[in-house]
């Protein structure tokens, strides 16, 4: 995907609809073994928050491409002792070929991108989780043979994962519904941006009504009620978010062939029940696997590997 070489992916809308489609195709080809590109590039991982899937899937993807990975986390670098992002970014730029950053503030990612020439990938911020949504889109494509026109509902907290889901869905022509408590609706600026980017056929509904949102939906998606950094309010959020739990009762309102997605890690008994995550409609393990395939496609494209 030629135009992607050297680009930063700080949000899902840094990709065009055509580029997302090409990435999904490349990811499918990498997954099936139809393509096996190789490189000797170096990926840096700089994660200010915990991670299992993103860390391991990026590491495995890069190793399978023949490249190497360096852990640059704050506890093992000067980053944790306060070296400015502007300095860190310019130094890392001289050593490594690509950098994935997991952080709190989106402006930190923007600063890395401003000071480093190498591609910067958002490996989750408080605003967005673009790598996750690429994996979700691949999973939806595998299940329904298409992404465009698919009705997908997100229940829970309208933050990072929901934001990328709304933007990615709008770009791909999906019918997106998001039901959250009033105090946790997605940021209006994100919804506005999604409405501007929405292609013909796309729909975006933001509501507080979980049952209406799920009716006839082909995808039911959820995420934790208290994200990393919000641990202090975790207990107090539970009663407010309870009506948005993905359980068998709410799932009965969805399409009978609906699939259930969760970015993981899951809190059984909170945003999703044991019966649903372990049930026959759950696709969460395929979704987690797809993180590796889409991120490998992203690495190949951003690094310009033939
Ligand atoms: N879904 C996801 O990003 O998982 P990790 O936090 O384990 O990377
Ligand atoms: N919204 C969650 C996603 C974790 C992958 C968080 O930010 O913690």
Structure in words:
The protein is of the alpha/beta class and 306 residues long. The protein folds into two domains: 2-128 and 291-303, 3-Layer(aba) Sandwich (Rossmann fold); 130-287, 3-Layer(aba) Sandwich (Rossmann fold). It is built from twelve helices and nine strands. Strand 3, helix 4 and strand 4 (120-122) form a beta-alpha-beta unit. Helix 1 packs across helix 5 (130-144). The mean pLDDT is 98. It binds phosphoric acid mono(formamide)ester and norvaline. Residues 124, 159-161, 223-224, 227-228, 263 line the site of norvaline. Carbamoyl phosphate binds at residues 51-54, 78, 102, 129-132, 263-264, 291. One of its GO terms (biological process) is L-arginine biosynthetic process via ornithine. Pathway: Amino-acid biosynthesis; L-arginine biosynthesis; L-arginine from L-ornithine and carbamoyl phosphate: step 1/3. This is Ornithine carbamoyltransferase.
Give a short summary of the structure:
With 306 residues, the protein is α/β, with parallel strands linked by helices. The chain is built from 12 helices and 9 strands.
Summing up helix and strand content along with how strands pair, one would put the structural category as alpha/beta
Helix-strand pattern: HEHEHEHEHEHEHEHEHHEHH
Q: What percentage of the residues does DSSP assign to strands (E)?
A: 5-15%
Main pleated sheet? 5 strands, parallel
| Helicity, as a percent range | 40-55%
Query: What is the rounded distance between the termini?
Result: 9 Å
What's the shape? globular
CATH topology type of the largest domain: Rossmann fold
List the quaternary state of the chains.
Answer: single chain
Name the bound molecules.
phosphoric acid mono(formamide)ester, norvaline
